[in-house]
Write a structure and sequence with these properties.
The chain is an alpha+beta fold. Among the domains are: about 70 residues, no CATH class; about 130 residues, Immunoglobulin-like (Sandwich). The chain contains five helices and ten strands, in the order H-H-H-E-E-E-E-E-E-E-E-E-E-H-H. The longest helix is centred in the first third of the chain and has 47 residues. It starts with a helix and ends with a helix.
Length: about 350
């Protein structure tokens, strides 16, 4: 009986390594199957991914208005504050001063004309008038200073950025880099008219924007996000300006200037280089498209970029998926090594007939 038990133990010991080898051999195949499935799924997704469809600009929004004389409609909080300062404070004060001075001049010309004053007055000082014309300008400046200083402070007190874009001026085009989204880069040139390009080349259409303002590559940003602009230049001084955002910053070679905006409305907004930068200064337009966050993520992926945290999440998921497979592959290799020792000790201790 004991001999039979010993033979069965020996057969078990002989079969254990083979089983362990078979289990280890099939584990990578099992773990490779999901990877192959995922790769096939990614390929199918890439093939089915649509081309990003840019929005068409709206009339009288984000662009000059034909025959217009007012400030463009503002789509940022800073722009609304600036427009209020202009419309509610500066314009009324300017109109009041202009009307007052004009009336004073007309009254002085009529009241103190030579026909009405054959003997000229020799009055040289009037204390009351001198106090008035000193205090009134001071009060006017105070009325202007309080909201304007508050606006300037808001412009230079940048909140935490959601998106950072490096804006680089060149003669005569713009380059934009997205360091928060994989550091990809786009180059933006003005679109020419149909009769200015060769057959087969892209030309401007109304869906791209107005003449001299449409570009082949727009800046795309998410709506409601704080966009930080780091502005510089590769050659001469340029100036990045988008009137609807109340944003304007000089691009100076060798310097990094900063500004920001937060667009609260989806749409397409145009600007231009606002610094005389050379012969083609008038052909450096700027186009910014504000989209929903989901469309922004779609555009970033189509440009070869990544969303913040996306790469780290992918690496963490891949690491988490690989850990169970590695554990499963390592565990069977350790058990057979311990089993023969225990079985051999048991066999040695068993008495034989």
């Amino acid at each position: 009986m004991r001999t039979l038990k010993t033979m069965m133990m020996a057969l078990t010991l002989a079969a254990a390594p083979a089983a362990a080898l078979a289990q280890n051999a099939t584990a990578p195949a099992a773990s490779a199957a999901p990877a192959a499935t995922a790769a096939a799924g990614d390929s199918a997704d890439a093939a089915a991914k649509p081309v990003f469809q840019h929005a068409a600009p709206e009339a009288e929004i984000g662009q000059p208005i034909p025959g217009g004389w007012k400030i463009q409609p503002q789509v940022t909080e800073l722009g609304e504050d600036g427009q209020w300062l202009h419309d509610a404070i500066l314009v009324p004060i300017i109109v009041a001063i202009s009307v007052f001075v004009l009336g004073l001049m007309l009254w002085a010309m009529f009241r103190y004309r030579a026909a009405a004053n054959p003997v000229p007055s020799k009055t040289t000082h009037n204390t009351f008038i001198e106090v008035i014309w000193t205090l009134v300008p001071v009060l006017i400046l105070l009325v202007i200073a309080v909201p304007s200083i508050r606006l300037l402070a808001a412009q230079y007190n940048q909140p935490k950025a959601d998106v950072t874009i490096k804006v680089i001026g060149n003669q005569w085009y713009w380059t934009y880099q997205y360091p928060d989204n994989g550091d990809f880069e786009i180059v933006s040139n003005m679109l020419k008219e149909k009769d200015e390009v060769k057959e087969g080349e892209r030309f401007r259409t109304d869906a791209d924007g107005p003449r001299l303002l449409a570009v082949d590559e727009r800046i795309v940003v998410p709506v409601g996000a704080v966009v930080k602009l780091i502005v510089t230049s590769n050659d001469v001084i340029h100036s990045f300006a988008v009137p609807a955002f109340w944003a304007k910053m000089d691009a100076v070679p060798g310097r990094l200037n900063e500004t920001w905006f937060k667009a609260d409305r989806v749409g397409v907004y145009f600007g231009q280089c606002s610094e005389l930068c050379g012969a083609r200064h008038a052909y450096m337009p700027i186009a910014v498209e504000v989209v929903e966050p989901a469309r922004y993520a779609e555009w970033v992926k189509l440009k070869g970029g990544t969303m913040p945290g996306e790469k780290a999440a992918e690496e963490a998921a891949a690491s988490a998926a690989a850990e169970p497979a590695a554990t499963a592959a390592a565990a069977p290799a350790e058990e057979p090594a311990a089993a023969p020792v225990a079985n051999a000790n048991a066999a040695a201790a068993a008495p034989t007939n």
